Amino acid sequence: MFMVKGEYANIKNLLRVRLKTNAKSFKWILILLGLFVFVPFVGTIVGILQSNHVRFYNIGDFSLTIFFGIGLRYFVLMLMYRSTNDKLSVYPQTNNSRFISSLLYNFIEVFALAAFVLATYLIRYIIVWVLTLFMDNVHFALDFDLSFIIVGFFVYVAYSLLIVATIELIGVILRKWTYYAIVGFTAALSWMIANFSTVIENLRLRISFPSNVLAFFIEESSLINFFIKAIVLLVAITAIAVVINRYTVYYKNQGRSLNKGVVLGCIVVAIAVMVVLPYIFFVRPIYMTQTTGTVTEGAIIPVDDFFSGFEEIRIDISHIPNGSNIEVRVENREVVAEVVTGARFFSNTHMNISGAESLRNIQGDTLIISYRPSFFQANGIMLADFADSQLIANLDGNVLFVDYVIENVQVVFLPIWGMARQFDFFNDRNIFRTPIIGISAGGNITPNVWLRVE
Amino acid sequence: MKINFDSLKPVYIQIAEAIEDDIISGILTEGDAAYSQLIIARGLNVNPATAAKGINVLVSKGILEKQRGSSMVVACGALERLLSERKEIGVNGLISSLVSEAVKIGVSESELIGKIKNHYKGLEGKQNE
Amino acid sequence: MNKIVKTTNLCKTFGKKHALSDVSVSISENSITGLIGRNGSGKTTLMRILAGKLDKANGEALVFGKEPMDNLAVLNKMVYTYHNVQYDQNLHLKTILFGYEAIFLNFDGTFANKLMRYFDLTGKMKYKSLSQGMASIFNFLCALSCRAPLTMLDEPVLGMDVTVRKSAYEILLRDYTEHPRTIIVSSHLLSELESILSDILLIDNGRVVLNNSVDDIRQSAYRIDGTPSAIGGYAADKKVIMQKKSELSSFAVIYEQCTEAVIESAKKQGLTVSPVRPEELCVFLTQQNKEAELECLW
To answer: Residue A35 class from Cβ within 10 Å (0-12 exposed, 13-18 middle, 19+ buried)?
Structure first.
C-alpha cells in the first residue's frame, strides 16, 4: 500500500522505544497533575467534615483544564519534533515510520490522559459518596450518570485526538514549507484574534472568521453525527499529515536551523498584513447606538401585588395597645454560607429589614412579616434544593426577635466532560450547569424582610 | 611470536616465518593441527585476513596442508623441506652478508674461516659443560 | 568479493563548502576498513550519507546495493554510531539498551551487559552523567552488540584513555572474528588501529587519496636515509612524496613498490631502506607543506 516492506514492524518497535523512553517523564506529569487535583480535594474533604455552616464546593472541571493543557503540550512538542527525534536517530527508521510512530505515541498519551481524568473523577466521586453514607448533610449537586460518563469519555477523547492531529498537521506543514507556513499561520492567527478581540470591539473586519467552522463541531447535537464527523476528520487530517511528511526530507541539511531574523520578520509582516492594514483600509466601524434611558414614573404598587410571592409570618399583636412601639432585634451571625472553590465567596449575613418604622406607633392587630426565602445559587444550582432556610420570629413582650436558620448542608459540585454539553442525548439530565467555565454564584443568603402592621 | 610493524618485512611474511620457526623448533610437528587464522589474529591482534595471507604462503610452499573442513595441518616432510630451505637460502644469505662485510673491513678469507672454526669449537665446549 | 558499499562520484556541499567531491570508493564484505583523514576532511559526511542520515548532493551511494536513506532493507542491517550520540539526557543506560534490543534484530543483550560490566558501567547510570570517555565506551559497546552486518564507528575511541582504547580494539577484533561483519572505523589515530585493519580509505578535503588494503599500502612506499647527494641521485627518476635535507639526517620517502630488488639497489647506493608506517604515509600524502611557516615561528 503506502508502506514499505517491514515498516509495520519498524513502527511497532519505534513505538515501543518511545513508550519506554518517555514512560518516566510521563509518570511525573501524571503525579504532578494528581497533586494538582488531590491536594485541594483533601481540603474539600476536611471542609466537609469540619464545617458548621452551609458550604457549596465548586470543584472545577478537571477535564477542561487538561484539555487546554493537551493543546499547549502538543503544540510545544510539535515545535520540538526535530530535537526529540534526533535523540532516536541511532535506530533504523524511515521518514514515514518516524512520523507515524510519533503520532501514535501522542495518541496513546492522549488516551492515557483521558483515562487519568476519568480516574480522578471516579476517585473523588467515590470518596464523597462514601461520606454521604455516613453523613446526611452531604449532597451531590450533579448526578452520577454512567452512560454520560462513558459516552462523555469518548467525546473527550475524540476532541483531544482532533486537537493533536491538527497540531501535527500544522507541524508537518511548518516543516515542509517553513517560511511560507509561518507567514500563513501567523496571518490566520492574527485574523482570528482580530475577529474575536474585545479591544477592537467597535470594529468589524470585512473578512470575518467563518464562525461555522467552529460551529461544525460545537453545535452538533446528534451524538452519532458527531462521532462520524470526528472519525472522518481525524482520519483525513492524519492521512494528509502522513502524506505531506512522506515528501519532506528530514535530513535535508544536518544542523540547519531557522534563521531567527527571517522568522521574526515573517511574523511581524503577517501580523501587520492581517490586523493593521484592514484596520486602516477596510474597516466599516459600527457605532454604538445611543440608548436613551427610559424613565419609568414611580408607580404606586398595591401592597398585595408587591408582596405576592413572598412568604409570610403573621403574629397577632392585638394584645399590644395601639400607639406603642415594638422593637426589632436581629441576630447577627457569622458566615452562614459560602462557595468553596479555592476562592472563597462570602455571603454577608446581616439581614436586611425594612419597615421597622412601621412598628412604632402601631395601629393594628396583626404584625405581618413578609420575606423572600433566601435563595442562593452557584453554577445554576439552587441551594434551596438542599437546604431549607427558615425565618423565625418571636414576639417577647414588646420585642420582636427575628432570626433565620439554614440547615448545615455540604453540597459538592463535581462536573466532568464539560465540552460534551451540546448533545441532545444528554438533555434533561442533571449533569451540567451553565456556565461551563468559571463560577457564577449569587443570590441572597439572607432573607429580605419587610415588616408591616395591619 | 611477535610482529615487528617497523620492519620492511610484510606482516604476513613475518607470520609465515614465525610458524616456520615453530615447526623447526619442534613446537609444531608434522600432522599437528597448525594455528588457525583466528587463533593467530586473536593472539597477535592482527586482522584475520593478514593472518590468512601468511598461512596461504605456507600452503603454497607446501608446508601446511588444508584438511577436510577448514583446518590446516603441518604437511608431511614439512620439517625436512624447511631445514633444507633454510640451509640453502637462509644460510647462504647470511654467508653473503658476512663475506661482504668481511671484505669491507679487510678480513681475509682464511681469517674468516679460522674465526668460524673457533666459533664452532666454542659452542661445542659449552655443550660439553 | 561482495561490495557492501559502493559510491560513484559522490558529492556533498554545505553551502559553499565542498564536503565531498567525486568520491568513488568500494568496501568489501567482512573487511575492516579504516576511514582516515584529518579533522574536517569529510569522514563524518561520508559515513552519514552511507548511514542514510544525510542527503547527498550528487552522485551515487549504494549500501548493500541500494540507496540507504529511508530504506529499511538497508538500515536494518547497519548501525552507525559516534562518540557523542544524542539520547534523551535523563535516560538510564539500561533504558537505552532496551531500545537497541527492541529495534536491532541481532542485538545481543547478554554480550552488551557483559561489556558494560567489563568497562565498569552500570545500567542505572544516567547518560548525561557519563564523561566523554565513558559515553564513547557505551556507544561503542552498543554498536558492537548490534552485530549488524555493516557496522560504522565514527571516532569511537574519542575520550578513551590508552588502556581502555587497547581493550576496545582488542574486543572489536575478537568479536569480529567470532561474528564476522563489515566494519568501517573512522579515526585520526591510525597507528593504534593499523594492526586490526584490512583496508584503509584516506580522505583529504573531500577527496579520496588512498583506497587500498593495508598490506598493499605498507608495501607502497619506503624511506631512504643517506647523504643528500646519494638521495638526490637515487630519487631523481622516482616519485618523492617527502623530503628532508639537513646536516644530521636526510631522508626521502619514495612512493613506489618496495621489492627485494629495490632494497638491493638502494643498499648498493649506500642508502638505508626502512618502511613507512601507514600512518606516516597518510600524513605525508595529506600534509599542507607548512615547513617554511614552521621555521618562521621563531
So the answer is: exposed
Which 3 state secondary structure label does DSSP give C40?
coil
Regarding whether C237 and C157 lie in a shared domain, the answer is no
Number of domains present in the structure of chain B: 2
Q: End of a domain among B60, B76, B92? A: B76
Q: Cβ of B50 and C214 within 8 Å? A: yes
Q: Are the beta carbons of B6 and C173 separated by less than 8 Å?
A: no
B98 with B69, same domain: the answer is no
Q: Give the residues across from A56 on adjacent strands.
A: A339, A411
CB nearest to C103's CB, from A91, A96, A252:
A91
pTM of the model: 0.81
Q: Which helix (H) or strand (E) holds A28?
A: helix A7-50
pLDDT of the residue at A208:
56
Which of A90, A102, A105, A248 is the mutation pick for testing C, counting most C CBs within 10 A? Answer: A90
One domain for residues C250 and C291: yes
Q: How far apart are CA A203 and CA A123, in angstroms?
A: 48
Are B72 and B89 contained in the same domain?
no
Which residue is it, cell 498537521?
A169
B-C contacts at Cβ under 8 angstroms: 51
Q: Which is it for strands C207-213 and C222-226: parallel, antiparallel or unpaired? A: unpaired
Instruction: Determine the pLDDT at residue A262.
Output: 73
Inter-chain contact B10–C32, Cβ cutoff 8 Å? no
Closest-CA residue to C138 (of C168, C175, C173, C103): C168
Residue A50 grid coordinates: 469540619
Query: Could you tell me if B38 and B92 lie in one domain?
Result: no
CB within 8 Å: C104 and A91? yes
How far apart are the C-alpha atoms of A96 and A88, rounded to whole Å?
14
Q: Are A57 and A410 in contact (CB under 8 A)?
A: yes
CA distance A173 to A99: 13
pLDDT of amino acid A440: 62
Pick from C214, C225, C272, C273 the residue to mutate for testing the B interface (most B CBs within 10 Å).
C214
Q: Which residue has the cell 448533610?
A: A137
User: What does each C-alpha distance from B107 to A186, A339, B92, B114, C175 come to in angstroms?
Assistant: 99, 122, 19, 11, 56
Nearest Cα of chain A lies from the Cα of C25 at a distance, in angstroms, of 23
- Structure confidence by residue, pLDDT tens digits, A286-336: 444 444 444 445 555 555 666 767 788 888 888 888 888 888 887 666 556
Neighbours of C47 (CB within 10 A): 22
Residue span of the structural domain in which B104 resides: 79-127
pLDDT level of residue A101 (50, 70, 90 thresholds): very high
**Among C159, C185, C215, residue at a domain's last position:** C215
Verify that B68 and B16 share a domain, yes or no: yes
Confidence of residue C64 (pLDDT cuts 50, 70, 90): very high
pLDDT (average), residues A368-374: 80
State mean pLDDT over C27-54: 90
Residue A27 banded pLDDT, cuts 50, 70, 90: very high
Report the share of chain B in percent with pLDDT over 70.
98
Whole-angstrom Cα distance, residue C150 to residue C171?
A: 17
CATH code of the domain in which C11 resides: 3.40.50.300
